Amino acid sequence: MVMESIPKEGSKMRIQSYKHDGKIHRVWSETTILKGTDHVVIGGNNRTLVTESDGRKWVTREPAIVYFHKDFWFNVICMFRDDGVYYYCNLSSPYACDDEAIKYIDYDLDIKVYPDGKYHLLDEDEYKVHRSKMNYPDSIDEILKHQVDELQQWIEHKKGPFAPDFIKVWHHRFNSEH
Question: Name one GO molecular function term (predicted).
Fold first, then answer.
């Protein structure tokens, strides 16, 4: 049995993404924990090594703040680029955390948000294929449909990581630690 832990502020952790069948999907080698509670983890990374399930490796191009919440089936990556903040939102299980890593199950669907606030739902075809192939239960499908709606509300109302103050505070905090 894996014991849940709360990441300590200032510590470095890996992020491990899995698929529904339990296979590893993607691993980010290092994220600095900026805030860790029993419900929320906020981290920052820059030029971080990412390893894909097929062994392919790449390095992130820009600083990013990552946001995980225990009560929601999504996580958010806020990427700082020259032309503004882009958000990449993964529909996923709520995170789990142990001494090894922050972990979640990636459920294929993503929402990309542009600096002007426009957003697009991505990878619906991939979701359909994996839902069939990995036998996602109807209950998961219903949760994810609801969470897509919830996430769109957060984006439209600038809630949570989409709030301008969130970006200012956590980007500043991450920069001051690096």
Answer: ribonucleoside triphosphate phosphatase activity
Element (H, E) at 27: strand 24-36
| Mean pLDDT of all residues in 122-133 | 97
The CATH number assigned to the domain with range 12-171 reads 2.40.380.10
Distance separating alpha carbons of residues 106 and 92, to the nearest angstrom? 5
Supply the residues annotated as catalytic. Answer: 26
pLDDT tens, residue by residue, 138-173: 999 999 999 999 999 999 999 999 999 999 999 999
Q: Which residues are annotated as a binding site for Mg(2+)?
A: 90, 106, 108, 110, 123, 126
Nearest to 144 by CA among 97, 106, 95: 106
Residue 27 Cα to chain centre, angstroms: 12
Q: Is 19 exposed, middle or buried (0-12, 13-18, 19+ CB in 10 A)?
A: middle
